[in-house]
Amino acid sequence: MHPSTEANRLPIDTPATYRLCIQGQIPANWIDRLDGMTVTRDPSVPSSITILVGILSDQSALEGVLRSLFELHLLVLSMERLVDGAIDTNRLRWNS
Hints:
The chain is about 15% helix and about 30% strand. Strands 2-3-1-4-5 form a 5-stranded antiparallel sheet, with helices on one face. By secondary structure, it is an alpha+beta fold. It has one helix at about 60-70; strands at about 15-25, 40, 50-55, 75-85, 85.
């Protein structure tokens, strides 16, 4: 991996939209620990998969959500940063 230049660096202190795919189900009494993320299920994936989507204020908020999932012993299958509802592939490229 090559470090990115300052111009292409993703900011850690600004809001971003994330989609997380989780193996397992989140108990209703833990929903408030997910910083406002929406809990959904996609009928095209197995019922054991939970999808979280939402805008998080910064990387610290993302860490808090991940910590809650860890405390529940739930496996994070994938995590994507979204831009206008799509994966932000341009910002995820490494410079060579």
